[in-house]
């Protein structure tokens, strides 16, 4: 597997909004992705907003 080295070695500058965050990736079924896309297009939310809300609710429901 080829290494994905960054071409630019200058340290990244993060905005206040993203400075203390972590990017994650997940594979979701196509139908769920379509529903998610439809939802964010009809609201002022982003995919990130919906994922954060859903994950927080999931964790709180389980006392985590």
Furnish the topology, listing elements before pairings.
Blueprint: H1 30-41, H2 47-61
Protein model, in words:
It is a single chain. By secondary structure, the protein is mostly helical. The protein contains 2 helices and no strands. The chain has helices at residues 30-41, 47-61. It is extended and about 40 Å long. The protein starts with 29 loop residues before the first helix and ends with a helix.
Tell me roughly what share of residues is in helical segments: 40-55%
> For the residues shown, what is the average pLDDT?
89
Low-confidence runs (pLDDT<50, min 5 residues)? Answer: none
What is the CA–CA distance across the termini?
A: 36 Å
Radius of gyration: 16 Å
Structural class: mainly alpha
What is the 3D form?
extended
Order of helices and strands: HH
Count of runs of 4 or more consecutive helical residues: 2
In this structure, how is the largest beta sheet organized? none
* Annotation, overall tally of beta strands: 0
- Sheet-strand content, in percent, reads under 5%
